[in-house]
Amino acid sequence: MFFRIHFISGRRIFALLLLASSMTGVSQEPISPEIANLLNVAKAGDGKAQISLGMRYRDGKGVPRNHREAVKWYRMAADQGDAEGLDNVGFMYLRGWGVPKNSTIATAYFSASAAEGHAQGFFNLGNSYFSGQGVEQNYHQAIEAWRQAAEVGHENAIWRLAVLSAAGEGIPEDAKRAEELCRRIAPRGHANANLLLGELLWKKGSQDLAKESWSLAKRTGSRQGGALLELSEWRAQKPEKGSFAFVEVSHLYQGWNNCGATSIAMFARHLGVDTNPYAVKRLCPRSPIGTGTDWADLLEAARQLGQAWELKTFSHDEKGFSEGTQYIRDHLDAGQPVVIDFTITREENGEVLRNGHTLLVVGYRADRDQYIVKNPNQPPPGIEIMSTKELESSWYSRSYSRLGKGKSARPLIVKALPDGR
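RESULT FIELD:
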């Protein structure tokens, strides 16, 4: 069954632009003959030149980086109905580059671009529907948009359809179909397709072929490809208590700002519950789609799914880390993954930013001083290998839940072991 996508025409977009900021000019600096020629062609109304100039200003290639100027040129092309220009303006609104960040306006532009048959417009529109950015979250609309992009060979749309088929998210689970889709683009060097293809091959027992796919992903720059190759050395071995364990957990790829619900959905599925990330998210009304999810709400969602899980916290110090990692290993030895919350620190425009991120610990190897995590923000199968030192520096949070009252701790969510731990 196909689903009808509701498009927004280019003309209707401009009713939304009351929220947009005005454009400003750029300082005059010497420009190369190439840029001067491109500028003249763009001023004469050539849409492709306008887009090319916009990209140069967006990326700072041949001209000083200036996102407002990029938007100005993209919009000139969009005003002429150019599908690529419409999509690029939408992208700038999605990121908040040169204009106020506004996912509703962004999605309207993606919709107008898709209405013109533009593959990237379809792909971005699918992303909006999948994550509920600017529109109500809708798997069927996302799948239909990606299907139309895939029909004209859009590689990332093909991959996203493969991801959903492998996971059975929004569509019936179909590993064969997922493998077929991956094989369309993996030979072209699509790293993410090779990651997923390798996982599908591994699960059906073709371990040597799986390693070939992961090797291809690694050669095209994927760190996860290297992690999977390393893990393959002992992944199939029988676990040894206190030495190593690996819990097979099927991966789900998160949408925008949905790591908490996605991690909980992976945990629930591992325990036999039929759910998906946005079904979990909808059980958290105080944490609406597009926002971070309070762990108290996640525990309530789990209760509604028939799961009596527990929130445990350990002190944010060396003693707490030692006690917490032993607790994690005990659960992994018992075949149970553990949900944890990270703090990711990054610098942007000279400002230090800290963001929370929820994921699962699914394994460890004592002799290598390593932990294996299942990260919903990474392409399937989402495997990362972390040193104990890396885990210690990242596993803490002040904002995981209102229950924490702003106090820094090392939080985790578990299913209690038979002995009550």
